[in-house]
Amino acid sequence: MKPLRISALHGVARVAVVSALVTLVLAWVSCGGESGGVRTLRDIEESGKLIIITRNAPTTYYKDRDGLMAGVEYDMARSFAAWLGVEPEFVAINTISGILEALARGEGDVAAAGLTYTVGRSESFLIGPVYQTVKQLMVGRRGGKQPKRVEDMDDVGLSVVASSSYEERLETLRQTHQTLSWESNDSLDTEQLLARVQNRELDCTVSDDNIFAINRRYYPELVATFSLTEPESLAWFLNTESEALRKKIHEWFEGFSARGGPALLKEKYYGYVEIFDYVDTRKFIRKIDTTLPKYRQFFEDAAANNELDWTLLAAQSYQESHWNPRARSPTGVKGIMMLTLPAARDLGVTNRIDPVQSIHGGARYLRQLIDRLPDSIEEPDRSWLALAAYNVGMAHLYDARGLARRLGKDPDRWKDLSEVLPLLAQRSYYTTLKHGYARGSEPVQFVKRIRHYEDVLVRSIE
Fold first, then answer.
1. CA-CA distance, 320 to 275, in Å (whole number)?
2. Domains 6-133+233-270 and 136-229 share a fold
């Protein structure tokens, strides 16, 4: 019998077939299919392993600059597994339909893959707690077709991820806009479709706003033209036979939320993506190719000598001087790392406009600042706090930490310090602090921009 190719179907037919297949698979599993059936909570606890189905993407599960796994879903799943007393095992599947089908077959215990809650999905799966909201955006490019409403889509080439919440939304819109059409793509994910729009291979695609916000920094020609939805919920999905596990997830999430977990993850993974300037981003990407090669080895050597990431050091330098070794500010700081004269003397830098001396001096200074911070501060917050001190001075950072404690915030978390630092410019606060007034908003923006530059740099060199 020739197998049915779902990819050959489109629109309502495709959604109906996928839904029917999921229902059949669920029935097959419940009758004891070859997969061995869905694991119970007891099975998970006795095996000591929680199997998480996810996908490889910058908003879910990926390798960071140190080669370690990261992502919102990854961090949350690890937290839940630790709370449950088991080890997490991640299974990455590239397509939405593949993730849901694998979950229906019992090949994983939970799907944590940036999945949107929809009525259709809730009929086939159990839904975990909502941890984030997103909006669907129509995405085009500068100089290309930029539809402003559904009525403008008649002559627009549109491709979206197959079996996605995007396709469900388009199906709903087609009920009132019968000429609306699109290609269902089951081989490319949202990030890859965004790249095709950037490269003029496709007019438009649909993306959640968080995915768009991250990727437009890699693909600066992208523009969001209009919203297709109001805010929608992202949640974990479970097999319909996993009610006991779902209750445990809700129990864990209640404590996780009370500790500010979702807010901390939002800051960690999205706290810098709002820093987007089209002209500046294009200029930076161009300079990665034209200017960085002159200094890359110096950054790598200086970083290695001081146990730093060279990409972080290079991103800091770009924020300071745009990799101009002769840069100079009105206040007298100069060089590719913008060192003050007293700092340069302390660091043994005799010529601040010598890029080698400046880069090595700046790396030593950043290392000193990191080492001066209390051991209670963990990475990546440790680096962010040290960078803030590089900009505003360690004395003012200590003031901000003390003020954070006074306000009931965590002085070891960059999220909390980034909210407190701007208060150093307010008279009602700075008059109560040892070192007085500081332009506390500047180090916050300084750190955000460095994080933005480093993320783009890492993506570019990969």
1. 16
2. yes
